[in-house]
Write a structure and sequence with these properties.
Layout: H1 17-26, E1 30-35, H2 48-53, H3 64-75, E2 79-86, H4 92-107, E3 111-116, E4 130-133, E5 137-144, E6 147-153, H5 160-172, E7 174-175, E8 182-183, E9 186-187
Parallel strand pairs: 1-2, 2-3
Antiparallel strand pairs: 1-4, 3-7, 4-5, 5-6, 8-9
Length: 198
């Protein structure tokens, strides 16, 4: 059993609409996301993956609202961090994130890092996406076949385990900009000078 699994089905404290927006308004220092799925289905992104696969250009203004929010968080001293668990070879969806999504997010102020699925530390992390706000508010992200079906606030859970998961993931992951070099259809770890790391 992967860490965190006993907490996945509590069935209460679902966050939507204003409740979810309030979590984002009220965090004061940091918002951390562990992103684990090979592919996500997002209602507002219908057709984007097919567009990417077809080699068409990224739509103008893609993710601009999120970028504006990221710049606002950064200007107020709040950090938004993400660790993306990636397969090898990466899925088409992961490739689209690396080419279309993450460069703009990173430029707008999000600290994005990458963790290989076969890294030993992945076995110590939850088999579920979550957000951790201010190292004290835990929100599990529930998905079915890549489609988000709910967000669950773990109101009665000690956040210490999730703080540890965050610290493990951050310590063992690689900054996104060092994963930009592609080789044999996948992304490879590089050093600070862009050379393939050994």
């Amino acid at each position: 059993m992967r860490p965190g699994e006993p907490h996945l089905r509590s069935g209460g404290n679902w966050l939507a609409g204003d409740d979810w927006a309030r979590v984002w308004r009220e965090f004061t220092t940091s918002a951390f996301r562990l992103e684990t799925l090979p592919e996500y289905r997002v209602a507002g992104e219908n057709g984007l993956l097919e567009r990417f696969r077809s080699g068409l250009p990224m739509p103008s203004g893609f993710n601009s609202a999120w970028h504006e929010r990221l710049r606002s968080y950064r200007s107020s001293g709040r950090a938004v961090q993400r660790v993306r668990v990636v397969t090898r070879p990466p899925t088409d969806y992961q490739r689209s994130q690396f080419e279309w999504g993450y460069p703009g997010n990173s430029s707008a102020g999000e600290d994005i890092r990458v963790l290989d699925q076969d890294d030993d530390v992945v076995r110590e992390l939850p088999a579920q996406d979550f957000w951790l706000f201010d190292d004290r508010v835990v929100v599990l992200m529930h998905y079915q076949d890549g489609l988000q079906i709910g967000r669950e606030l773990l109101a009665d859970t000690d956040p210490a385990d999730y703080v540890r998961y965050k610290e493990l993931a951050m310590a063992h992951s690689t900054p996104f900009h060092r994963y930009l070099r592609r080789e044999s259809g996948g992304f490879v770890r590089t050093d600070e000078d862009g050379r393939t790391a050994t």
